[in-house]
Specification:
With 247 residues, the chain is of the alpha/beta class. It contains eight helices and ten strands. The protein starts with a strand and ends with a helix. The mean pLDDT is 89. The structure holds adenosine-5'-triphosphate (ATP). InterPro entries: AAA+_ATPase, ABC_transp_ATP-bind, ABC_transporter-like_ATP-bd, P-loop_NTPase.
Length: 247
């Protein structure tokens, strides 16, 4: 489904006129199959979110290609309805002047669904994420963090994309809400038959939901492991990273 080939990305380091560049992603190549859940873990600054933005086509790689079913993700038409995302900062993910109903309608209408048809889907989408129809008329400030994140998930699944990218999307929720959201994501994945890219610091969450886990180290892929083989990782770095985050 997603095919990443020899991707490189660097940013200007220092001021606007500086010629120095920071090489953030180096020679990244991997495949993510249809319906697969791939976790991306790594220390802070290892390039996880940058890779996420490139996968979503929000930014372009300097070199290399990112293809979704053979076509460049940079092309908006390729992304619309196929790829969606849920970010950590859910407070700014939803327009504060939109009700829950309007927030969920937005992506549906971008997919050119008729307003009446889109409106009729909202109750079901809310139900899928464990919210009742009374939430339709509420504004984000009237909801708890977990509820806003559920609305973001309802928005993300509304167009039935083939892949959703979660960038630290559950890390700021408290323990029991995190567990509920993970459970919800597991169920939605089965129901809608879609894949996830799951960027996180939380190896336990990644192991719970993912099929494979990619370890990023200083912008390079250190290792990609099947979740069942997590105990038998090869590299000393991954072993240390796992010990550090599990401890
Ligand atoms: N738009 C940008 N302009 C300049 N530098 C950037 C930009 N985005 C990211 N970087 C740099 O790229 C490096 C990797 O950042 P990135 O956010 O991808 O890491 P991360 O692994 O997601 O980190 P964290 O876990 O802390 O979120 C960092 O050194 C960061 O300062």
């Amino acid at each position: 489904m997603l095919s990443v080939e020899s991707v490189e990305k660097s940013y200007r380091k220092g001021g606007l006129f500086s010629k120095e560049r920071e090489h953030v992603l180096k020679n990244i190549s991997f495949e993510c199959k249809l319906g697969e859940c791939l976790g991306i873990i790594g220390e802070s600054g290892s390039g996880k979110s940058t890779l996420g933005r490139l996968l979503l086509g929000i930014e372009k790689p300097d070199r290399g290609s990112i293809l979704f079913e053979g076509k460049k993700v940079e092309d908006r038409k390729v992304r619309t309805g196929n790829l969606s995302a849920v970010f950590q900062d859910y407070t700014s993910s939803i327009n504060p002047f939109y009700t829950v109903e309007e927030a969920i309608l937005e992506p549906l209408q971008m997919k050119r669904k008729a307003r009446e048809e889109a409106l009729s889907e909202i109750d079901h989408l809310l139900y899928q994420v464990g919210l009742d129809p009374s939430y339709r008329k509420k504004y984000p400030h009237e909801l708890s963090g977990g509820e806003v994140q559920r609305v973001c998930i309802a928005r993300a699944v509304s167009t039935e994309p083939k892949c959703i990218l979660f960038d630290e999307a559950i890390s700021s929720l408290d323990g029991s809400v995190q567990m509920q959201v993970l459970e919800l994501l597991k169920n939605l994945r089965k129901r809608y038959d879609m894949g996830y890219i799951f960027i996180t610091h939380d190896i336990q969450a990644a192991a719970y939901i993912c099929d494979r886990i990619m370890v990023l180290r200083n912008g390079e892929i250190e290792e990609i492991v099947e979740v069942e083989q997590l105990k038998d990782v090869q590299s000393t770095y991954t072993k240390k990273l796992l010990q550090m985050i599990i401890a």
